[in-house]
């Protein structure tokens, strides 16, 4: 199935409608927004097996994964809807007047209001959870913003079906025309036109560095700059601390063979660099990881572009003089029969010195690939940590002793990441309020916000302070009697009480 | 008194020291940060009359204003210190593990951590409250960030004295070397070098559009882009609604004569555009405002650059064919004796149509100047509101009827501003949590954050999520027992209880 790129005229119409919808939708109550989001979740479920078959065909991802991802997307919509209605994210604050202060202190009340139409770019590696009705879309609707989705061409038909589910829900909930628009586009001009349109007030993106950085630059080059939240992935370093490695090299190797190859390595949280200190235990780890990787069957990657990039970037890494191949999937032996889109699990290794000297080794190889960096001692491990760019996640495999005795390493690792994992794997991103899926640049363009969890709603809202308004004229969220029963900070104290 | 511009070598040294200080200071407790901020407040008080005399000489602002501004700056430091210690701003969130979920849900806990060294540019119009030890500096210290202040050349000696107060406090509180650096610079190269330095992680600025936008562009053009919070002022439109004006044109005129000329009009919240609908009441308002303005004595502006810009921009506005002078200060009559730096209070008027057709009339004239826009009807007033750029504040002078009967106008005005005032004046920015001093671009570069009130602390911090950490290894803020007694969201419920 192929779709025509949107023309400039169609984009103009879509943005005009989104702008008009914004002025209606932003006045809808939290309950109305939540009901709309829950209705989308129901329509996604209603899309049934046909949706699953379609996404499997387009993405080459297996059925269990896609059923799980749809369930996760439905959970996102429902849980962000609940968070929306709970209203804590509004950061409602009330300071009551003090007439006898000099000068008199006025009554001031503040809450978040929506920014305006949000453009969301679908991600190829999450056809449901980070695409058409995914996390960015759910956050924008919760914030009170209309959404314009640019479908990812790799799953345009899936995207079209999800868009229909959203529009059906919109219809059932009496949403204004323009609340949601689905835009097809394979050329970069479509994306640029959407980002540059004066009615666009924010952008959400999950994908490659090149794509995300380009959108960010466009957003800042506008006459009126807008926030662009690009989540651009990272190498998610894993530090194998000495005591821990001594006691469990083989187990960790098994655990990581699974994490490195999960979903053919196509997760932003895929562990791409594993750092250890030269030792017998590290040798065991490398040996066992290699053995495990050999036994993992290559699977189909998402699309041709990703597969070609994987081959190219992996080839480039392995071409570096200091990099040695440890193991590839044994299924390589019948490689002439391997499908063109297969991503071959691969492990390589290099020294800490090589890593410090060669920036090529820092680069993400998106796919089932990891490089093990062998440091000569803890000081070199610290140097490696300080040399790493911003990351979505960092992981320590460590005993309590490893942690307490290596404060410098722990602090250096903490300083570069958005999520800091102890004795686990970075793949698997739990959807909950305490989650943070973001990180210092270049992991994301704004380290202060993440794209998983209901705190992501705040990306698409701004504060407004009402000064000296009478109770009857204030929005419900800020009225004396707290009719919505939300948490508010009243004269510096958090409370649900009336004023 | 004149100071040498910092050399590149001095900037490099300062940034290295700030970077080293960051790694120490970010581990200091909330209580230690708060104690440091309170110590600065004490040293500011200790700087005594000499500081007041110095700032009066450099800024030409009167004694009462400067004593008041110092008191406000001390209040900011103390109240942000209390907010820092209260810890609600950390957005601590805890989701506890659910072992029997498929896959098992890990324990995840999130809080804000400091970004890194923050560069603050002093503002000429607030030598205390938005300069060396001002709001941006206080927020950065609360967040856990070292600060590098670029002194405003117009009050370099005042800035030097305040810097000494900060360094004395740092000494008394055993702060690390590099926690605070005071940089002089009259050339733009000094500012650029500070913003572009790789160790700089955020920038705070209050001042002109040209200056603030330049810093923002530099921040985004870096290899690692950083957030630049420029508060760039606005024209702060005031809408005179028909019923309200009918009942009190003269009183409103008196009130606004004071607001327009307060501090020689040198506030970012100075009302620069007043919009009414043609009527007898509007004629009365214009007449009475003109009379009142005639009686206000010109006072000295902050420095030569500001005075010259005021004359130039006002001259340019009055040159427009459609703009008519209403009144200037009568003290003009002795103009040959007027000091060179005097800012002459001035009122002009134009039609709504002229405003809609001529973008020159939208521009801020920084100083004691306002233009009254006479609309032919409510529809034209709405068109004017929709044509306005982003604003720090908007004000409605309105009865309840005016509000409820003119929803379109109210919504259009609300959509462009950060603070929405009813029946008051925009000048006078109360320092409290519910305050919002910021607004849609070009009022500020990031409408989601403001520079007054303790919520400004969040500008300089980012979330980090700890996954699967044992209680003993977690930061105090996230430990089960909640030793700091802060508000936290535990499994979606706000509470101070232990886990």
Tally of helical runs of chain A: 15
Strand order of the largest sheet of chain A: 11-13-14-9-8-15-16
Oligomer: homodimer
> Which range does the strand content of chain A fall in?
15-25%
Structural class of chain A: alpha/beta
Largest interface: A-B, 73 and 73 residues
CATH class of the largest domain in chain A: Alpha Beta
List how many beta strands of chain A DSSP finds: 19
Q: Which segments of chain A are poorly predicted (pLDDT under 50) over 5 or more consecutive residues?
A: none
Largest sheet, strands/sense/barrel of chain A: 7 strands, mixed
- N-end to C-end Cα span of chain A: 58 Å
3D structure, described in words:
The structure is a homodimer of 499-residue chains. Chain A has helices spanning 8-25, 30-46, 48-59, 63-86, 135-143, 156-172, 188-196, 209-221, 242-261, 280-294, 304-319, 352-357, 378-387, 400-404, 407-414, and strands spanning 93-95, 108-114, 118-121, 147-150, 180-183, 202-206, 228-231, 238-240, 273-277, 299-300, 324-328, 342-343, 346-351, 369-375, 391-397, 417-422, 461-467, 488-490, 493-495. In chain A, strand 13 (346-351), helix 12 and strand 14 form a beta-alpha-beta unit. Chain A has a seven-stranded mixed β-sheet, sandwiched between helices. A five-stranded mixed β-sheet of chain A has the order 17-2-1-18-19, with no helix packed on it. In chain A, strands 5-4-3-6-7 form a five-stranded parallel β-sheet, sandwiched between helices. The first copy, chain A, is of the alpha/beta class. The radius of gyration of chain A is 25 Å and the shape is globular. Chain A folds into two domains: 8-232 and 447-463 and 473-478, Aldehyde Dehydrogenase, Chain A, domain 1 (3-Layer(aba) Sandwich); 238-422, Aldehyde Dehydrogenase, Chain A, domain 2. Strand 17 (461-467) of chain A pairs parallel with strand 16 of chain B, so a sheet runs across the interface.
